[in-house]
Amino acid sequence: MKQYAYYPGCSLESLATSYNLSTLEVAQKLGVDLKEIKDWNCCGATAYFPVDELLAHTLVARNLALAEKDGLSDFVAPCSACYKNAYFTNSYLKKDADLAEHINYALEADGLHVNGTMKIRHLIEVFIEDVGLDEIEKKITHPLKGLRVAPYYGCQLLRPRKDHENVENPQFFENLLSALGAESLDYPSKTRCCGGSLIVTNRKAALDMVQILLQDAVNRKADVIATTCPMCNVNLEVYQNQVNREFGTQYSIPVMYFTQLMGVALGIKPGKLGIGKELVSGEPVLAFAY
Amino acid sequence: MSEKIGVYVCHCGTNIAGTVDVKGVAEWAAEHLKHRGVVIGREYKFMCSSLGQELVEKDIKELGLTRVIVAACSPHLHEKTFRTACKNAGLNPYLCEMVSIREQVSWVHTDKVAATEKSKAAISGGVERVIHNEPLEPIQVPIHADTLVVGGGIAGIQAALEIADAGYHVCLVEREPSIGGHMAQFDKTFPTLDCAACILTPKMVEIGSHPNITLLTWSEVEKVDGYVGNFKATIRKKASYVNTDTCTGCGICWEKCPKKVVDDVYEAGLGIRKAIYRPFAQAVPKYPVMDVENCTYFKNGKCKACQLFCPTEPNSINFEQKDEILEIQAGNIILATGYDLFDAKRIPQYGYGKLPNVFTSLEFERMCNAAGPTEGRVVLRDMKTAPKSVVIVHCVGSRDENYNKYCSSICCMQSLKFAHLVMERTGAEVYNCYIDIRTPSKDYEEFYKRVLEEGGHFIRGKVAEVTDSARLPEEEGKLIVQVEDTLIGKQRRIPVDMVILSAGIEPRHDAKEVGKLFGIACGASGWYTEKHPKLDPVATMTEGIYIAGCVQGPKDIPASVAQGAAAAARVLGKIQQGVIALEPIKASINETQCSGCRICNGLCPFNAIAFIEDDKVSSINPALCQGCGTCVAACPAGAISGTGFSDQQIIAQIDGLLLKNLEEPVAA
């Protein structure tokens, strides 16, 4: 069976452990064989590229080289930022011979070499494209009937622009949620930015951005916001209190990883999916499935 | 060497001489190509001038030239000039060749030495080629005096009337039940604000009653055979289930018809019609047609209300009517099939189809029209509330890398017109969100100023999205338009009641297939390609096929009318000639070598190649062939050759280009 080079990324070892747990559980249930890349390093996130592009590419390329060394052809990242970085570095390696030479010169110190031949995808793409919605639907034991979900793509998931997808109005997340039995909402800000790391450098500006996302979800009477990225998840969930203080609002809306919702629908015990660790309780969401 | 070749090199002012050592090139040709038959090499400031032409004519007469090479601009521009000069001096015009050292050398290079060398090589190639040219005679074909006009919008109407008024017969074919096109849907026309129907319907009536016009509505051209002067078109006249010999157009049938249908065509989805219908009151012809897909009788065999109530004797409703296939002859064809509106649903962030109070431009036109579904009242989708504030979004689907890159050219003025009408009829606040305002025609800028003075707001910025998701209390229940005002450098959210999307215009969805039917090509954006964008905008690369109106590119009513009239003038000119001389540059098939694979049949852009079943070989109609050479290159058996571009000529030209002729004799 096909094996995927799994690149969890730093967040999934710290803030987003529940994303990692639910990813591994759901993948196992769907027969997706994720093999974690040995000795992987940070991808540089959004911070490193503006500082030094060549070094940032090299950082990402090391992970690609490790995966290539394992003889695998598919690279999977659950974090949108990791996915975006891997995708771009991988495609630049193919396009820019000069860059590839510089990177490989650096990687030589580690006894590595990168070709840029991997197929880079986000986890959600692998589930939808390789497993397929029909197959997922067949395995659903606890459909999320009546659960109103705001599908939040965020910005980075759609940035490696793919021809078949309308980046202004993508539909694949909605389709996945519908396969889980949930009611997928027309969420106006689904592709807006959550502020990313701006929350650290310019708190007020980032809170403005988060507030828009929360208000749009509330306007659509969402029971939960589903995310595909640990950064989005943190901004939307952790900062709800600060938004409330800043804007005099009373948001209290659960924010969950799409893998957690998949896991619930697939009948995996909530504890195994990391549910219970969130700051805004996901308890009400479970009520739709059980 | 028996040929006597003259080589003439043009300076074209500094166009060529600025980059090429013209004098050096001419001297080089006279000296180094002498052994190939070049007897004279001259340079001149402007070869295309009368004096330049006279140089050639004089040399033909005095030196007895048998071949002529003019190294100057592209043959597209002056080939005819120099061939005519040769003819005047008694030399067969096809023994003259042009070598393009302007478009292919001086305009694309900066290195003078290299450009000069390249010019020499190009001339050497031309010399080798012209040695193999054969004297040719143009083909003469008579021209049928009838004209086929396809499309009954304003461009087609104008063309048909011009030709009919000049005394020649026209067959006007229209796909819809009535002529009138998009213009018939409009209320007012910019910039004068005169009523569209008032200026259009007199022309429509004239078409309906003109003795020289055969009007075929509810009809489509299915096949076109033949060639310039002698086209044969097969037309399907769809069954209307109404006998037009007896029908009086009284309207009782559609009054009594119980089946209501949303009218997606004429009313742009905003109004309803019946299953048997006449699209609008002033329709020409006045007879209704039956929409079989929605008719209750055709669906379940019961109803026939229309027939029951038809007051004519004999009854005009005939459920047994069948499609008719007509064949008509025509010497020339004018295509004026118009445009489609850009489908605003393709830009989901603008909310059309999802948010009820987002309207398209065509919907708004119908709303403004006194004969439309709201009788001219500007209202929200509930059909009663007048809006207090309106945003008009410009450039929807136009000037947009994601959709159409071109400017649709009509939307600025159309939006300004909408702004005026909204203010006039509702007093609402109107915001125009634009990228640039483009008002380049007569009295257009003045109209823009008028709308500004009337109090229209203008925001320079492309609208990002239209949403109903409110963030502030004053946005509740409104449509919120998010736009960057680039003049003040701020993001704005404008809460309004109504949004009008000024959608761009696109080639007809079936333009490509229709083009293939008539043997003409579409450009990158899908509009039909004119013979020359500036100097021959209504002719096409296919002789006898003309285009007019939006089929050629986005344009407004005045421009469409001008093109309709221009196409008519071109056709009238051809009819007056009586016969037409066709270029003898043609491909022909050597039947003994043809394997009958039919590869060439589908490749021919002019439908000139037919397969002869009996002989199992393909055959080229010389009157249709435009000498493009596609089939010659494609034939796997090498069975097709072209006069004027035979393998021998091409190979000799390549040898010449490579200057193989300088040392050794070229393979004869």
Can you tell me the number of structural domains of chain A? 2
What's the multimeric state? heterodimer
CATH third-level topology of the largest domain in chain A: Rossmann fold
State the separation between the terminal residues of chain B, measured CA to CA. 11 Å
How would you characterize this protein structure?
The complex is a heterodimer of chains A (290) and B (668). Chain A is 47% helix and 10% strand. By secondary structure, chain A is an alpha/beta fold. Chain A folds into two domains: 3-123, Up-down Bundle (Glutathione S-transferase Yfyf (Class Pi), Chain A, domain 2); 133-289, Rossmann fold, CATH 3.40.50. A four-stranded parallel beta sheet of chain A has the order 2-1-3-4, with helices on both faces. A four-stranded parallel beta sheet of chain A has the order 6-5-7-8. Chain A is globular. Chain A starts with a strand and ends with a helix. In chain A, 49% of the residues are buried. The mean pLDDT of chain A is 94. Chain B is an alpha/beta fold and 668 residues long. Chain B folds into five domains: 5-136, Rossmann fold (3-Layer(aba) Sandwich); 137-238 and 324-338 and 508-580, FAD/NAD(P)-binding domain (3-Layer(bba) Sandwich); 241-322, no CATH class; 341-505, FAD/NAD(P)-binding domain (3-Layer(bba) Sandwich), CATH 3.50.50; 587-643, Alpha-Beta Plaits (2-Layer Sandwich), CATH 3.30.70. Helices cover 29% and strands 24% of the residues of chain B. Chain B is built from 19 helices and 34 strands. In chain B, the strands form twelve sheets. Chain B has a five-stranded parallel beta sheet with strand order 10-7-6-18-29, covered by helices on one side. A five-stranded parallel beta sheet of chain B has the order 20-27-21-22-23. In chain B, strands 2-1-3-4 form a four-stranded parallel beta sheet, with helices on both faces. In chain B, a hairpin with a 7-residue loop joins β13 and β14. The model of chain B has no long low-confidence stretch (mean pLDDT 94). At the A-B interface, α9 of A face loops of B.
